[in-house]
Structure formats: structure tokens, C-alpha cells
Amino acid sequence: MLPGLVFTESLPPLSDPAAAPGACAIAVATHSAETELPTAVAVELHGITKRFPGVVANHDIDITVQRGHVHAIVGENGAGKSTLMKTLYGMHKPDEGTITVNGKPVSFSSPADAIAVGIGMVHQHFMLADNLTVLENIVLGAEPTRGGVLDGRAARRKIREISDSYGLGIDPDVLVEELGVGDRQRVEICKVLFRGARILILDEPTAVLVPQEVDELFGNLRELKSEGLTVLFISHKLDEVLSVADEITVIRRGTTVQTVDPKSVTARQLAQLMVGSELPIPELRESTVTETAELVVENLTVRSTGGRAVVDDVSLVIHQGEIVGLAGVEGNGQAELVEAIMGMLPIESGRITLGGTDIGGWHTRERRENGVGYIPEDRQRHGLLLEAPLWENRILGHQTERPNVRGFWIDRGAAKKDTRRIVDEFDVRTPGITVPAASLSGGNQQKLIVGREMSGTPKVLIASHPTRGVDVGAQAAIWEHLRNARAAGLAVLLISADLDELIGMSDTLKVILRGRLVSEVDPRNVTSEELGAAMTGAGPVSSGEAS
Amino acid sequence: MRERLSRLLLNVFAAVIAAAFAAGITSIILAVRGDSPTFVISQMWTYGTTPSSELTILNSATVYYLSAIAVAIGFRMNLFNIGVDGQYRLAAMLAAAFGGAVSLPNGVRQVAIILVAMLVGASWAGLVALLKVTRGVSEVISTIMLNFIATGLIAYLMRPSILGRRSAVANDVTTTPIPKSGQVGGLDLIPKAGGKVYGLIVLAVIVGVLFHVVVNRTRFGFDLRATGQSASAAAASGVNVKKMIVATLLLSGACAGLVGMPALLGDSHAYSSITFQTGLGFTGIAIALLGRNNPVGIAFAAILWAFLDQSAQILDLNGIPKEIVQITQGVVVLSVVVAYELVRRWALAHQQRVVGGALAPPSDPAAATPAQVTA
Amino acid sequence: MMNLRSKRTRIAVAGLAVLAMTLSACSSSKNNSSGGGGGGTGSTPAKKTVKVGLAYDVGGRGDKSFNDLAAAGLEKAKADLNIQTKELSAVQGESDQQKADRLTLLATAGYNPIVAIGFAYAGSLAKVAPKFPNIHFGIIDDNSSKLPNVEGLVFAENESSFLVGVAAAQATKKKNVGFIGGVQTPLIQKFQAGYAAGVKAVDPSIKVQVAYISQAPDFSGFNDPAKAKVIAEGMYDGGADVVYHAAGGSGSGLFQAAAAKKALAIGVDSDQYQTATADQKPYILTSALKGVDTAVDNFIKDDAAGKFKAGSVRFDLKAGGVGYATSNPIIDPYKAKIEDFKAKIIAGTITVPTTP
Q: What distance in Å separates residue C19's CA from the closest CA in chain A?
């Protein structure tokens, strides 16, 4: 479980400029915790581990937050930031580890406990009642009373005090429905302060704000800081984090990777830390790319229900024996592109052909029957029947194909036999094939899915994060399977957040940003920093060409 | 095999616990009223096991079973066909009118009547599917509405000027009775019962077997269960969820169409707007829940339900309100739903522990340290 | 995991919903069984002990309507005979088989005679009666049986309705009257037919508004006062000033509307003037009486006296089985004409139709 940390420190960039300040930041944190007054540290999380059935959401989290700092926590979506914050706010209990607030160890059973020691949380989505005034919203649930009667005057006075001392500019008597987004957020902050919070958790606070509002928010945060309050700021927008934070902790795959000083890292380095890299080294040997185009996507556009083009005029060709990598920060249209190729999302315009046949009008099942394998991004939602036994999950997605069925009938014997084969070949750790899929760990679930989708000699494999959450050995095995299938002529679309995997395993590598393929890079020459920069739009890639 | 057995035992255990709980609640109410629970139970048992009661129980259970299977078909796919009630009533009425009007040879006529009933039931449920698939209308809402519409439609169609006619019993309006050549005779299964078991009990058994085979052994059944367990995973696996909704509701409706058949072909021979049994669709929901959507479980649940209905009759004779049994039935359904859910969660967590235990890596030091510190 | 959990929740919610439906569908049936010989305490030995079984329709004793009227008949019989009774009632949505079992239960428990209240028992009685040839059965509102041990007790509701029609025709000032039926069944249409004929017999130019609350198989019309009130208000607003109902428990809605509009209403089955609230009383012109109580009382007494007659007995004006109520004095000015028509019906010079 610990390798994440180890690997990070062996990351190449950290041996040059960024490494020293990064290491230094950790040293400072440790140093202050040991020598200065314990009250200099507002929050200390040590060894926090939180498991959910089938997944470990957080493990061995160590964070030290200095009083009067804005401490940013960054990580990719799904890295475990929210789980961690919920732990700190008492919304669930950690399975292991200690939380120390102002030098005292604490244990929270509910957010009320967290509030009692001065921790407050401002959620990403505001929790305000539109038809009440600011004052009513703020006091809701913490009504100051005098002789059992709501003491409006005292509340109003207190809100004014808070507003003035932190420059929030709140009028307690307007209706919330009349306020803009930025104002509402300040009301939320005021609400938390009203309850006596000295440590504020802000979950993706800038997600809903326009740039000017972001600036205003940062002004407020500096104000809070100068008054001695501590702010935990969760984000994945690196530029913002660098401009406002005093310290930045990076979380990847559920654990803390490193704590760095924003003054001595760049967005590019931070992106690398977030995205990470792993052993063993993903690599392709000799090229097996043929001239035969297997899957061709031409000018594909997919619109969200809101009408936004989430996939915007995308064209790509995958040849037999070729792995095409698709790099991009999550949420830039990869998921929609995949679902459109699989026939799960309607396409607005464009063509998808498989071996020369237009499959745009085909249903998902026809596509699968004609040799399109699919490793979904969200395995629990799209890849498994969690409460069904493993052998039934072997059938899922291939319920019209041998050996699972014979004509109209499910062939239970053959399906079970083939499940055992997958379990053996792909090293799925399970006591048997009749246990429900939910009882396996995420990595083993993934291995089962990969094994299933690579069964029956598919022509095309759409692989979204094929090695996410699996252990190092299994990762190597999955790559080996991919290489072998590629040698046998499989065309693969590979989507991954692991840049080294993308670079190492791709014959062709494209970058997607806001639904568009913005550049194509040569995986033999690109470094992960360059790719990371291209993904975040932080810098152009020299070898790229807009498509 | 062992897992399946232990899961089965767990579910049986849950059902027994729930039944015991319901019996306990009922006993408390009886005791508070000042009646002896043991007396009541022995009375009910004695009366419920007389041959004539057994006959009624078997006949009631037959129609309950068909109704519950109709509901369970939907439940297996996470669809809530609350409209079995309207579907079977409309189906029975139109099939009865059809059976009274056509003249077909014996044997063919019965089959034709049953097919008409299935067709009508399926069509009525098909409207629900149509609304859901094309307009996204929740089947819960549309089935409830269609129940009311079915009532109105039957009232309209039963006018003497259309399909109804004054019956021999002057105060009733019925369809034209189905002649002997269209009826299904009873079976003399219970000696000294003074009556016969519906011949169409055989149909209920066939439906149960078909349900089991189709759901568990066929591709269609797999798609159905997959959609019920996770619609998103099913869609990703290539299941056409809309098609499945239509197919499932049609099947559920066709099965609902059968609900009225045992009594129509075996007993009343005509649809009467006054005496034809109503509300079976709702009973079916309760029984499907009680039987965990499993064809064997539903059979037991249907018999239990029918037994409670029947044996309650004796209570009036002893001055105990028979409505007490409705409390028992209600509590059984509620507690069984809770018990099944508890068992399900426990079993899943247990499985995870077992699997985790079987595969545990050498324990890491962090896990060995008691980490939790209380403030 | 989430979608699984929410699915379970849905099932649980569905379970609750079912429960609510099941319970509400059965909520109204009540049981009432009086101990043996209640009416016979302190009776003379001359009184014969009779075990009488009553099988009520849905609602049972206490429904303030049809079943209660039968219960009243039973009470009357108790006054004169040493009677041991057992009263069972039907539940909503039961099968014919369950009705048959109820009758069998009474028969095997030794009750004789047994009275089935309501024609819903017709089918089940036809099955049960032949198995107990020594037990006498009576059935209200049905005369279809040809069995030697069944006596059908039917009523000429059209005749009583005719008389209240005559009353309504005289009382109306706007030449506009109304009829509210509970559920559109042949039985209730008989009321409508008689009423309309009575009105027209007095003055053919009077308009008769007709409405039914529900259609069979929807029987809510017998127990939906709110809807009855809306319909009645509509009729009064539409020009009617007398409205007659044959809608069982829904009738109270009519009386509320009548009191609010200060217009007249006519009750049904029993003398509803007696049971109405004080503010409604002045507006209840009369009621069409249906002697279910008399019929039950007579049936029990005749049987005790060995005068059981298979076939059917028709309770009409001539037999005094139906009639009209005169407890509200405002009916007095119209009585002469009503009696006039009554005599003609009894004499057979007027035949009252049974279908509209």
C-alpha cells in the first residue's frame, strides 16, 4: 500500500529543482510539530485509512496543517480527497489512524463533534434555503435564543461582526434568492464561522465561481488567514492552488504523496505529482501496427443533455495491432467518447466504422458481438453485477456469445469453466467463482473484467483505465496481455490517468481537452511532464499538431 | 453449491423470523384485548386444516400465485407493476365476453379464452411500457392510473347495451356465461372437501416452472436480472434496456391476464361486475415480496396468505375480530422485507470478510496497531 | 452500491404501499356478535330458542345502512323469540368461495335459519344450500333460487320510490327534481325508474335530473358522501329543489348539501329523518322505506313458527314491506295524494316500472 510514496520520491523531476523544496516542506512540517508549541499545528492527520467494501478509499494519509495557513489538498478526481475531508468533518469514522486538532487527539462520530472542536465545512453545493433571509439561513440549526425565543437582534449583531472582521460584506436581511453565487458562498462561510469554526474546509470552492468571484474569494481567504483561522482548500485547479495556498499536499490513489511549498513548484510539477507514475515500466516492443484500419471515428460530436458539445468533432483511426492512447484530465470528454463508440450515448454527428462497416446505428450489443471489447471506467456501475456471482459476471457483456450461451439458453457449465480459466490466467484472487463480485477487492474485480473483455478474440478493445487500482504485478500482467493481443492484431483505444502507462503502452498518443483532440504526440519522444502540461492546457507540446 | 444452500437457509431463516415476529405482534394485540393467543391459533389451525378450508386455500393460493408471479416478473427487473389489478380485471372481463360470444370446439375454446386474457393483460401493461419508454413516465404512476381507467372501462363495457347482460340474479350484470364446452373442470384433489380444486391450478404450476426456467436459464432471463441488479451495467453489457422494459411489462401483463382465469373458467363462468373478485393484484404484490420473487418462495407465501385469509373466518364465530389477521399479514410483509434486507447486507459483508480472510496478505504493521484514539 | 441500495429502498417503500392498500381495503368491516339469548332474558319458557346466523355484506353491522337495517330486524325478532345469534360479515375483495365458506361455517355450527344479507351471496348460496337440506336460508334482494330450502326476500323498491316521487312532485316549486344513485346497477336503477314514474304521474312537465356516483364494478358510490354532496349541489344549482338519493352511506352528503342550500332532500331505506342531524332534519321531506328489518324479522319468526316457504317473498306496498316516512310534518300536505297513488298501486291500477 505504501509504494505510492516510495515511487514518488524516486520520480525524476524530484531529483531536480522541485525535489529540494518539496522535501524541505515536509521537514518544516515535522519540525514545527515537534519543537514549537503544539498549538501551532491546527490539524494533524496521521495514518488515516478508510475502507469501503471492495475499495480502500484512503490509506496512510499523513497531513499536518499549520494554524493560520491556507493548506491546499490537490489530487485527481477519485484520488480520495473528498473521503478524507468527510473523515475530518466527522461524516464517517476512519478505520485506522489518528486525528489531532489543536494538539488534542479527537474522534468524531458526527459533524456535530467536528463543529464542537471548531471545524466547519463549506460544501461544493450550497445548502441554503432560497426563501429565507441570510440571517435565517445562518442561524438555522444554531438559533441563539433568549428565554426560548429566537434572539434575532443578537444574531444580527454577531453576523455583522463576523462580516466586518473578515470583510465578507454580508447583509443579514436580504433573501438568499436575491444573492449571486459568490455572495451565497460568503453566506456559507459566514454560517460556518457563526458556529464558531476556526478551521474551515472548503470543498472545490471555485468550481462554481467566475474568475472575479474567485479573486474575491481568495481575498476573503487571506482575510481569514490573517485573523488566525486555518483553511483547508480542496481543489484540482492547480493555478488557483498555487496562488492562494501556503502549503500543498498532493493525494494520489488514496494516499498522501508529498507536501510541497507552492513557491517552489510549478503547475507542471504539481500535475506530475497528481498523476504519478509506477513500476513496472509500461513499454511496447517492436511495432505491430498494420495498414488495416479497424476502428475509424470521423468528425464525431456528442452533446450533453444541456446541449454542450462534450465530444467535439473528434476523428481518430485505430489500426489492427495498434494501441491509441488518449491523454486528458478527467472530465474532458473521454468518457463520452468511449460511450459513444460503445453505442451507449447517442451521437450528434459523425461516423464510426468497424472494419469498414458503419456501426453508428448499431446497438451496443451488436457492437460487442462484432468484436468490440469494453473495459469501463466505472467498473462498479458499468462493468459488474456486484451481487451476482463471478461466473454470472463472466457472462455479462457477452450474453449472446459462446461459451456462455448455447442458443437461447445460458450454458452454466461452460460459463463456469471459462470463468475458472479467467481466474487462473488473470490471477483473480478469489476463493471461488460463486462468490459475489462485490466481495472481491477493486483490483481483482478489474482483473476479472479485463480477462472477460479479452476473451473470445475481440477486434477492438476500448480500455478505460485498465490498470486502475490493481497491484503492480497484475498491472504488468494486464500490459502483457495487451501486448500479446496487440501482436495478434487487436486494435486498442487506451484511456488512462497514468501518464507513464499512456506513453509506454501507446503506438499513437492523442490529447483531449474540452472534448477536442488538441494534439497528437509521439509517445517515443514525449516526457510525462510535457504530456501533463498538454493535458492541462498549461503549455503547448512541441511535437503536437492540432487535429 | 454450499453457498447457494447456505444462502437459501439464510433466507428461509429470515422468513421464519419475520413470521414469528408477526405472530408475536399479533399475540400481544390479542393478549391486550384479553383473548388467548394459543386459543386463537389453535382455532385457526383447526379450521384452516379442515378439508373444505384446504380446498378454499388451494384455490385462493392458485390465483394469488399467478398474481404474485406477474408482479415478480416486473420486480426481478426493478419494475413495479402495481397495475396487475387492472390488467387482470380487464383481461378477465374481455376474455369472459369473448368466451361467451364465440363458438369453438371444446378444448380450443378454453385455450382461446386464456390467450385472449393474456393478450388483453399484456396490452394493458403494454400501455405502461409505451409511456415509460417513450415519455419516461414512471410505471408506478401509470399503472396506478390505469387501474382506475380499467375500472371505468369495465363499467362502460359491462353496460347491457355493449357486452353485459342482466344475469339470472336480477340485481347483477354479467357477461354471457361461457357454456360447458368452454369451461375447465375441477380436480378432486381433496377428499371430503365438498368441492373441486380449480383445474387451472395446473396452469399456475406451469407458469411457476416457466418463470424459473426463463429467469434463471435463458439469455432473456439473464438480461432481465442484469437490468434489475444494475441498469447501467446492463446497458453497458449491450442490453437494450428499453426493449427489456417493454418485454418485461408485456410478460408481466400476460401473466396478470391469467389471474382471473381459474375462477372464470372453473367457477363463475361469467364476469360479474359485482361478484368477481377484485384486489388480487395488490395481494400479489405483498405475496411477491414475501416470497422474494422466487417461484418456490411465492408458492409458500401464497399458501400462507390464503391460509391466513381462510382460517381468519373462524375468529368471527368466536367473537374475535378477524381483522387481526390482516395485521398479521401486514406485519409479516413489513418484517420480511426488513429481514431479507438485513440478511442480504449481512451475507454480503460476511462474504467480503470470508474472501478477505481467505486472501489476506501478511498483516501489515499499520493494521496491527490500535489506531483509534478517543478525545 | 448506491443504485443497489436505492433499489432495496424502493422495494421497501412498495411494501409499505401494499400494506396501506391492503389495510385500507379492509378497514371498514366490523364484527359484532351478540351473546346467546340476549333478547330472551327473563323470557317465558314458551319462547322457542332459535339459533339464527346472519351473513352480512361488506361493512357488516354498524354500516348505518343496509346491514344495520337487517340487524334492526334481528333485534326485533329477539324481542319476541329466544334467539341466539351469530353475525359474520364479508370483507372487501373476497372470492365467492369465501362467501360460501362463511355460509358453510354458520351451517355446520348449527345455525338455522341463516340469513344472507345482500344479493352478493346469491352465487355462493346456490352452492352451499343443497349441502344442508335441513337448514333454511333466507337471502335479501335475490329471488333467483329454486332450491327447496331457500327463501328469497325481495322488495318493490320501485313502488316506494314512486311514492316519494309523488311527494317530490308536489313539493317542488321550480318543477325540477333530482335523483342520485350510488352505483349504477339494475337494483339502483329500479329506484330511479319508480321515482321518475311517480314524479311524472303528478306532473309530466317536471324535469328529473339523474346522476350516479360510480359505475359497477366501482362500488365506492355507496360510500362517498363528498361526491354525493358535489353532485347534489350541482343539482340544486341546476334548478332542482328536491333531490332523492339511493346511495347508501353517500346520502349524508346529499343532506349536507340540502341543509346548505335550504332545499329538500329525500332519504332511502330507513327513515333518515330520525338519524339526521338537527340542522338537516327540516329539509328531509320523507324517506323511501325498504323493510329489510321487517323482512328479516318476519323470516325468522315465520321460520320459528314452522311457516318457512321456499321460493320468494316480495315485500311490496300491498304487503307493507315498503313505504314512505311521515315523521317530518312538512310531508303532511302531500299525504293525501300519496295515499291516493298508493291505493292505486295496491289495487293494481298503476303498475310501476322497474327499469328507467
A: 28
| Global model pTM greater than 0.95 | no
In tens, the pLDDT along A352-362 reads 988 888 888 88
A 460-489: CB under 8 A from B: none
Q: Does the pLDDT at position C17 exceed 80? A: no
Determine the topology of domain C38-155 in CATH: Rossmann fold (3.40.50)
Here the ipTM equals 0.79
How many structural domains is chain B composed of?
1
Query: Where do the domains of chain A lie, and which CATH numbers do they carry?
Result: 3-108+242-275 (3.40.50.300), 280-371+458-547 (3.40.50.300), 378-457 (no CATH)
Q: Which residue numbers in chain A have pLDDT < 50?
A: 1-38, 278-279, 541-547
pLDDT exceeding 90 applies to what percent of chain C? 37
| Fold of the domain built from segment(s) C157-289+322-347 | Rossmann fold (3.40.50)
Q: Which residue of C has its CA nearest to B306?
A: C98
Task: Read off the pLDDT band of B11 (50, 70, 90).
Answer: confident
Chain C: nearest CA to A274, how far in angstroms?
Answer: 27
Tell me how close the Cα of B174 comes to any Cα of chain A, in angstroms. 43
Q: What is the pLDDT of residue C47?
A: 56
Q: What is the 3-state secondary structure of chain B? A: CHHHHHHHHHHHHHHHHHHHHHHHHHHHHHHHHCCCHHHHHHHHHHHHCCHHHHHHHHHHHHHHHHHHHHHHHHHCCCCCCCCHHHHHHHHHHHHHHHHHHCCCCCCHHHHHHHHHHHHHHHHHHHHHHHHHHHHCCCHHHHHHHHHHHHHHHHHHHCCCCCCCEECCCCCCEECCCCCHHHCCCCECCCCCCCCCECCCHHHHHHHHHHHHHHHHHEHHHHHHHHHHHCHHHHHHCCCCHHHHHHHHHHHHHHHHHHCCHHHHHHHHCCCECCCCCCCHHHHHHHHHHHCCCCHHHHHHHHHHHHHHHHHCHHHHHCCCCCHHHHHHHHHHHHHHHHHHHHHHHHHHHHHHHHHHHHHCCCCCHHHHCCCCCCC
C31/B323 Cβ within 8 A: yes
